[in-house]
Specification:
The complex is a heterodimer of chains A (346) and B (217).
Chain A (H helix, E strand, L loop, with lengths): L1 H11 L2 E6 L4 E8 L3 E9 L1 H5 L6 H23 L8 E7 L3 H18 L3 E5 H12 L7 E6 L4 E6 L5 E6 L5 H11 L6 H9 L24 H17 L5 H26 L4 E5 L6 H13 L3 E3 L3 H4 L3 H13 L17
Helix pairs in contact in A: 3-4, 5-12, 6-7, 6-8, 6-9, 7-9, 9-10
Chain B lengths: L2 E5 L6 E5 L5 E5 L6 H15 L9 E5 L5 H18 L2 E5 L1 H5 L9 E9 L2 E12 L2 E14 H12 L4 E4 L6 H13 L18 H12 L1
Parallel strand pairs in B: 1-4, 4-5, 6-9
Antiparallel strand pairs in B: 1-2, 2-3, 6-7, 7-8
Bound molecules: zinc ion (ZN).
Zinc ion (ZN) binds next to helix 5 of chain A.
Amino acid sequence: MERIEEEMMSENKFLTLAIETSCDETSIAVLSGDREVLSNIISSQIEIHKAYGGVVPEIASRHHLDNINLVLEEALGEAKIKLKDVDLIGVTSGPGLVGALLIGLATAKAIAYASRKPLIGVHHIMGHICANYIAHKELEPPFLAVVVSGGHTNIVDVTGYNTYQVLGRTRDDAAGEAFDKVARVLGLGYPGGPKIDELAKSGNPQAIAFKRVYLEKDSYDFSFSGIKTGVLNYLNTQKLLGEPIQRADVAASFQLAVVEVIVNKAIKAAQEMKRDKIVLAGGVAANSLLRRLFEEACEKADLKLYYPPPILCTDNAAMIGCAAHYRYQAGFVDDMSLDAYPNLKL
Amino acid sequence: MIMLAIETTSKLASVAIRDKLGNIYEETSTEKLSHLQNLIPMIDTLLMRCQLQLSDIDLIAVSKGPGSFTGIRIGIATAKALAQFLEIRVISVPTLHAMAYSHEEYDGVLCPMIDARRGQVYGAAYRWENSNEGRSCFEILKPGPYMEAEFRTLLEEARKGRELQFLGEESQRAINVAKLGFDLYNKGAEVDFYQIGPEYMRKAEAEQKLEEKAKTT
Ligand SMILES: [Zn+2]
């Protein structure tokens, strides 16, 4: 009798513990089933790294180690479960900062080993895409995913929960990286994305015509390294001419130049792959212009648009837990030799 | 009391178990710098060799540094998470001091030393002496980061003409962590997992530079 009850319990509530430490966020989440988030604790180090104008890997690693066990306690507490109740452990295994990744991995492996529960290594980008499953319970593959973050700019054709094809990627800087660099040039500080987004609201996006880089005609790849130089050249020229610099105009024009290319390429890809849904993911998916232009373009092209709320756009463990759950269902389980893969390919 | 000891501060990782009778069993990695991959499998092999379950472990001793920053973190993260799951306490063991436990019979001065690069060493000096409680290890030069030349001068003063033996990586082993760990346990040094942390002995380079910049401006 007791045993049946126990089984019922575990069947109703399959609990996944997920850990994400690939960059400067220490995050641990508990999920029930595939999409129900019981807790999603995110301890951000942004304030610490601000003084350095970017994430310092050694400092990030140190803080992950100092924080992770308390973040774990908090995640378990909020989910009202014990570590021994967990059925599955998911953890980001790459890509990311190797020293940061390994704090999450060492912790996840120790827990999986001690609890004799399956361990799943998760690709960080797959996690970002899965954030949309959490936010939109009805969403199912296939769809076209656009992943835009500090480290990535990818157009991905998602054909199933564990099957996907990368159609385009950045050949140099990620979109978020370009935002950070231009923010630095404009003296806006770190992190650049939200600062440019904010300043651009009071600027004229048509003021300066920064070059849009589309690469070869049929390519879905991106290149954003040139635009920083474009912004620098513009600023220098203005200085030489003794003209005043309208930082808001620069921010708005730069932002439009980046976002326009992403939107146009994504719409074209969705049409070519015959997808009726576009799904945004990654930190830059929180950018207000990106969302607005995608909304307009998707309406025109008769595509459905999905994106997660800002809290699920940033690096968080709930998205890793969701991805881990789908990998587990498909039979991908890792063993105790799981390592950190800083350059893991999608 | 059964203790698990973890040493990941050098190129080769090792783990040890000290059983109720005081026997120490050790497992050493043969692969350099793959601690994250090898640590748990090594613990598993060692437990099997000792015919123990992980749940039989009462206490975890972990080498806290100095040494490889990455290595230190893998050991401590693993120790903390195991302790958190098993609800047991931990002992953080100073690495240089543990290295001196590789030569308990030696009567001269033991000098554990780890290359810290940029002309620096992490070093210390110890001496084993007989006392009322048996043989004990005494510190005669404080563990710390030293400029190489400075360290040699201080060591020369501290040794007072006694015979000297340098200890390197070959002494960074879990068996020594287990030995010192047990001595510390007898002194009541075990704590909750969230109270332990690494002993880097050096700030992150970026942090150092930022502080220097703040000083000059
Ligand atoms: Zn991310």
